[in-house]
Fold these 4 entries.
Entry 1:
Amino acid sequence: ARDINLDIKRVVSYRHWCNKLYNAIRFASLNFPPSYQPPEQPLQLGAEGQPALPQPARWLLSKLSGACAAVVKALEAYDFATATQRLYSFWQYEVCDVYIEVMKPLMALDESHAGNAEVKRATRDTLWVALEVGLRLLHPFMPFVTEELWQRLPQPAVGQPVPSIMLAAYPSATPAWDNPQLEAEYDYLNAVINKVRGLRNDYSLTKQRPHLFLVASDSAKAAVLQRSTLELATLSTSSEVTVLDSSQGASSSPPLGCGVCIVDDATVAHLLLKGILDPALEVAKLQKK
């Protein structure tokens, strides 16, 4: 036996993290209509009779499959530290920080418009799958919290009901969900978002939602940015995102009055600060430094 250097502050931190799990389930409950029925079969990408999944949903399912594979492999090797770290990462950085935030504007879509009802249904189904499977993955490490939260999720109407999460099968990876290319694209998007958040912090922007211009000299990256404007606007707290492909020529230029940060060798972010900040005041701040 050996002594363990236990930091009580970490215990308190993980107690707060339990509140985050509760809030994720509560968010789902608020966005699942009373008549909501979970998917009767595992979600299959592009399967007949199932709605096409939006890009964030396909990304989350890929991350969920990877989390299942990593956790099972770690448990089989008795590597509990790696298992808990991967679980924490999935819940914290993938479900809560990204998917739930991106889901909010999707839930505000008007269902009277063509296709919006299917998008909302697919988004809800993906959240339910991520929460239900995620709780079963987490159960060996947090049995009481996961049992309580799992019982609050709606259960499929078909098949024999499972009375407790303890009796539910432990999750395994779903290779059909794996999408390494989409995960790589989201890694790139997260790099852009982190840079923009840093730029907002430099200018002490809190509630303001400026227009974001992204200049990409790589056409492939420009295409990724173009089809991800919803995620970029939501996660960077921007009013609008405009993607400019600099290979198109001089006409693809952001307006004057922007704060600028370099994301990588092919991407530059321009945050429109004109009308939000006083240039004279900003110059005075720099002179004081």
Note: The mean pLDDT is 91.
Entry 2:
Amino acid sequence: MAAPRGILLVDKPGRITSHDVVARARRALQTRKIGHAGTLDPMATGLLVLGVGPATRLLTYIVGLDKTYEATIRLGVATDSDDADGVETTRADAAAIDAVTEDAITAGVAALTGPISQVPSRVSAIKVGGRRAYDLARAGEHVELAAREVTVSRFEVTGIRRADGVIDLDVVVDCSSGTYIRALARDLGAALDVGGHLTRLRRTRIGPFEVTDAVTDVAPDTPLRGDAEVAASVLGAFPVTAEEARDLRHGKRLTGAAARLATANPAAIDPDGRLVGIVERRGDDVKSIMNMAEEPL
């Protein structure tokens, strides 16, 4: 029986880690060679993209894709982790909450839309001096993270609820890779002078992949998406002949083939529909920058 290979979309439930999902998939598919294209916090649910077998090499091209999230932001309470798993640090009084108008919320959201400079949450996986920021924070050490440039292309409020001295906002966010939705909640609350944190987070999209196409449980017979199909959907396709496929696999350039490139780093696909690798322009030629293990016919 051939070893499994391909891309698997999983809808992660809450209260387990992304690594738990990978471990379950490894047991179900009976292979250790499974990786992911970006984690979700334990409290979060939604889309994880897993690479299986040789297809793990494609994850580097998926991890940087834009993403969509649905979330709930609670205004009026700040926590040390910027989400509901943290310890409450401040709570606004009733007068401050009453002073937050819908127009103020709209203005605050608008200020956090587009290209922005964002300081990630101090309880994050970013490394500081070789250690994860969340490990430093939990050890009581001071964590100061540098701001990074991200793009929030959509920050839409779909619902507003006022109750018990807080304001809950349901939002949808389209953003570039590396954006922290927890930080958006924190920064919106800070801008409104009431504090804020995230109480719900669900990832619904990564690039062309939708959570509606994901499975909730991985079984030994769960079908995987072919690596050629996935690579073409993410990077665009570059059809090659059998002879060109052989040359690319042997590290040779395709002389004068650069004019055929429709994208910067497309997926070279052979006449049998197999992924040869990822290619790039070298002058007027085309050369492989990543070759895939040849898939049996």
Note: The helical segments are 18-29, 59-62, 94-98, 102-111, 133-138, 181-191, 227-235, 242-249.
Entry 3:
Amino acid sequence: MPRLRPIFAPRIPYPEQQPLQEGHVYKWIITLALAALPVVAQAQATRLQSLETTDAGREWLAVGRLDVDGTGFCTGALIAPDLVLTAAHCLYDKRTKQRIDPTRIEFLAGWRRGAASAYRPVRRAVEHPDYRFDGDVSADRVRNDVALLQLQQPIRNTTVIPFETGNQPRTGESVGVVSYAHDRAEAPSLQRLCPVMARQQGVLVMSCDVDFGSSGAPVFSFDGDHPRIVSVVSAKAEVEGARVALGSSLGETLVLLKAGLENPAPAAPGTLPRVNRSTPGGTGTVSGAKFVKP
């Protein structure tokens, strides 16, 4: 059975540091990852590059650290002067499993060595209408693990330029990730090249190097004159000794999230009304793989 952990980086002990619950994962995710291992062998991922210096990080100042209620952090990216894209599970308290008041989350744009290019508290947050925090890692949970945060005030800084978003990359295409993590909490790192190993039903399996604190990190496509965000890091996994990252789908999700911010649902503030969609069925136990719970 796989062992599950979040990649949210805590500042204080969390339940994930205690004995873990084991759960079910979709067999097809494992099958996809195993089948795609030769892709990694043919196109090896590049090493992490620290963006600690001003010159190295200049292009990536719209990626920032999300400090969550003084207890931990995730990674987020600006896609409009007042909108930050991240993972939905970053909005939840890991102990109580309750939604965190979004006004207790702060976006630190371009955070490096104790200073940010801009500091903005969050005003509102919406997550994918089909996202559910409880339960085990599944295709549904990873695919829907996307949230949009509206800042209290827009960031009007000529050095912090919001990123555009793009279409989901193809299998075999190389993408990059800019992320913070527990061992690089004071400056982000860039992995410019990591192949997309597999793609199915809105979930990306990538050979990117992510760790605790990388939740919500933007996945970039470099196909064009400038990088575009094509996915969001949801979880990490280990398959046959190879470390992989699982990415959430954007697609129509951004349209839904923006609509949710403009017309919040009164029955569930900060969350879009649930819609009916056909979803893949069937779960199974899997041995020989570790999946990391977001």
Note: The chain has four helices and 16 strands.
Entry 4:
Amino acid sequence: MEKFEHVLSEMKNTLCEELKSFLERFENYEDERFQENLFVSFPFIELFYILDGNGIQIIDNVINPLYIKKVSRFGKGADRSSRPYYLEVVKEKKCIVTKPYKSVSSSEISATVAIPIIDENGSIKKILCFDIDLIALLQSDKHFYTKDKFEKITKIFYTVFSIFLGLISVKLVLWGSLNLFIIDPNPEHIFKSVILVTLAIAIFDLSKTIFEEEVLLYKDPRRHSEIRKTLTRFLASIIIAISIEALMLVFKFTISDPSKLIYSMGIIASVGFVLISLGIYVFLGTKSEISVKKFEREFK
């Protein structure tokens, strides 16, 4: 137990800060989306439950699928007011981490993290409780320590990269707008303007997607649904841009050199192939995710 006490004493503040930061991203802690993200982000958490201000459990245990066979799903209505973590959190009114103990439910060496929800009057409204498997925590502590720092560096990089792409799109629009003042019966300069502006729109949409997905929104790369949404948005922007480019080439070659129309048709065919491939990918990814959720429900 001394080894676990030493680890907890070092990681107590980090655990509390990580969990509080995670909780800020959600409003409803009983929502299925919150619960799924909780166990993906913190796989060492065995179960989660909520107490009211009097220490009465108000929901059944929400169990990590990895511990589904070890821990009881029930618990709603249980009186936890005599538990050390409840007494301590009521006294401190801040996040607390208990000393290591052997869990009765899972038989693992565990600890409980309790985070109070304080109302505007300074009273405890709810207490969020997380039972942690300390052996699993020890196995992931290196990742756990470095994750927050790495995420900040990554967000800074993506912010700079998004701004750079945005500036490129602005420059392309300015180049394209210069042709507006050219008076020439040859429509080629119009096609150049349309191509430049279309490319600018595609690049701007890409920069916006990167900034939203990687900086503003919480996204766990281990979840396939998150990756699928990002990839779909990115490829949709590319498909639209290339389709417009192909259309412009059709007009251009129709006027200037009809013998080259075969090249524009090749681009259109490529767009069709990418679109069909994307449709298959989205269909299979969605089907796979539905199967996984169905499998998880059958074990609950």
Note: Helices lie at 2-23, 32-41, 84-92, 134-178, 188-216, 224-256, 261-299.
